Amino acid sequence: QVQVVESGGGLVQAGGSLGLSCAASGSIFSINAMGWYRQAPGKQRELVAAITSEGSTNYADSVKGRFTISRDNAKNTVYLQMNSLKREDTGVYYCNAEIVGLRSRASYWGQGTQVTVSS
């Protein structure tokens, strides 16, 4: 079994910073891309940032220059540092990991963590 668990999140004022982390555990041979998505009320889930196993990154235009994604391959963990937060960054943030097991590969999602940015 594989588990993907997020931590961090919470309430922060606009202009503030917040960090998220996501750890994968279980029967893992390797992890390809890892990423963070978010879903605001009434909106579709959207990609925030992603990172490959080699460290190449991709960001949504709305967060470029403010958010930084990183990962620790030894710990099967991905991080998202969010600076200069805006109200429109509010939403549930989900971690996704493309995990290769001993016999299969699949995309796994965390349970989500709420980020609320107040004015």
Description of the molecule:
The structure is a single chain. The chain is mainly beta and 119 residues long. The protein is 0% helix and 61% strand. The chain has no helices and eleven strands. The strands form two sheets. Strands 2, 4, 5, 6, 9, 10 and 11 form a seven-stranded mixed sheet that branches. A four-stranded antiparallel sheet has the order 1-3-8-7, with no helix packed on it. A hairpin with a 5-residue loop joins strand 5 (46-51) and strand 6 (57-59). The termini are far apart.
Provide the descriptors you would attach to this structure in a database record.
119 residues; mainly beta; four-stranded antiparallel beta sheet; 0% helix
Largest sheet: 7 strands, mixed
Give the CA-based shape. elongated
- Quaternary state reads single chain
Strands, count: 11
- Proportion in helices: under 10%
CA radius of gyration: 14 Å
How would you classify the helix and strand content by structural class? mainly beta
Which range does the strand content fall in?
over 45%
- Nearest-integer average pLDDT: 97
Q: Which consecutive residue ranges, at least 5 long each, have pLDDT under 50?
A: none
Order of helices and strands: EEEEEEEEEEE
Termini gap: 41 Å
So how many helices?
A: 0
